[in-house]
Amino acid sequence: MPPVTPSARRAQLTGNRIRERRLVRGIKQAELAEAVGISASYLNLIEHNRRRIGGKLLVALARALDVEPAQLSEGADATLYDALQSAAQALPAPFGARPETDRIDELAGRFPGWTALIAAQQKRIAALDALVEGLRDRLGHDPVLAESMHEVLSTVAAIRSTADILVREPDLEAVWRSRFHRNLHEEAERLSTRATALLRHFEAEEEDAGSRAASTPIETVEAMFEAAGHHFPAIEAEGWAAIPGVIARAAGMEDPATRDLAERLLTAYADDAARLPLALVRPAAEAAGYDPAALLALGAGDVALVLRRLATLPRQAALGEGAPPFGLAVCDGSGALIFRRRLTAFSIPRFGAGCPLWPLYRALGRPGQPEAALIEMPQGARFRAWAVSQPAAPAGFGEAPVMQAVMLVTPAEALRSPAPAGPVIAAGPGCHLCPRTECPARR
Fold this sequence. Notes:
The longest helix is centred in the N-terminal third of the chain and has 30 residues, at 112-141. This protein has helices spanning 6-11, 14-25, 29-36, 40-47, 55-64, 69-73, 78-89, 104-110, 112-141, 143-168, 174-202, 217-227, 233-238, 243-249, 256-275, 278-287, 303-310, 359-364, and strands at residues 315-316, 321-322, 327-332, 337-341, 371-376, 382-391, 403-411, 424-426. The chain is of the alpha+beta class and 443 residues long. Among the domains are: 1-75, lambda repressor-like DNA-binding domains (434 Repressor (Amino-terminal Domain), Orthogonal Bundle), CATH 1.10.260.40; 142-202; 323-393 and 401-443, Beta-Lactamase (2-Layer Sandwich), CATH 3.30.450. It is globular. Helix content is 50%, strand content 10%. The two termini are 50 Å apart. Keywords: DNA-binding.
């Protein structure tokens, strides 16, 4: 028997939602049946999901219960449903009893206020987690921050040394004392300037506490991709011709370096869309359960193309349909991450390398050989990963190819297909954040 899809399962809960709404409004079953012109026994069958309804009867029941028909037939709002699903999945592994995700519609029907509050809190927690992750990553690897901190600490040391001399040598000549006072003033001014510059480096461009400070071209461009969900319908439909319009509508593109980087990455996106059109990859991915291993033939040998296109498919996870949540990491031959699509609970750093055990880096040592693995994070969450290393561009005769590795990641439970044949890897988010102190690959 084929598995019941989440959308079909939700459709079967119409009776539950009618009953919950009736109880919330304090209406007896016989009263509601009389109001819509059916028998109480028939309504009882409907409420126990033993009769499917639609059309005029559904509209009549919705009117009697003072609710939109779609809320009875579809249940919780799609965005709300997705947020509650995310809240349940974000809980750490040892959290005791797991939330009953199959009863989200019942929860939303009985307690709409509390449900909306949980969804709003989950959205804010996810935004703050992303902000903390970015700041923590920046503290460990941002070269601008490292240089600024070095200057600040050096200036503080100079101020302390000068002040120590002034305190320990009360009999200094007036000329020397004046010179030390001048040095102290100059160093204090320098410290103030550098501390102010350091603060500006972290200031967000938006007032929202959950927004990330996009202070470098790559961060600004990644913010543009994140805002679009890594899917650009205009480029999918019009190709390269739509790129200027996409850039013009994006925020923060005034800087020439940022604009050039955005154009380059969007051109690569358009190249992928032309080689593997959405009209081809989306139905094939749906039929294959979004398993990359079943879609390799689509890329005509270009595995990285398949992985990148899966990461750009539009999501409709709130209805249990569409692409699952995918994360993407791209690194060059040195292992430096040059592009990423962030994924909840799977940290992909911006300024430093990821975990040395990721298939992303293992693929660099096996060019052209696709890798698959199950990654187990320190908190217990598991993710399926696929990676491959290929030349970023064709190389001429006698020239060494410039290699680039691509890794696609998704929560282990997001796909219905069997787990990959690769190993189970006890990995982490990167050595500067990973609690696995005994890991042999730890730097």
